[in-house]
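Project standup — Tuesday

K.O.: blocked on the structure for the chain from last sprint. Re-posting the sequence here as requested.
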Amino acid sequence: MATPIRDCPTLTGKVAEDFIKKAKEAEKRRGTIELKMTYKDYKAILKTKRN
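H.V.: unblocked you, prediction finished:
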């Protein structure tokens, strides 16, 4: 016997508007992380992981 597919909940009204507003604000605040490591740094990390 097949399992029935349930409906996905959908945001409507004020809740949906608040969600979109918060998502857009979070997108504006989004930043990046720069990882600049040398080969020596990687080797040091690997050395500590093995011990």
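K.O.: great, moving the ticket to review. The radius of gyration is 23 Å. Helices lie at 13-29, 39-50.
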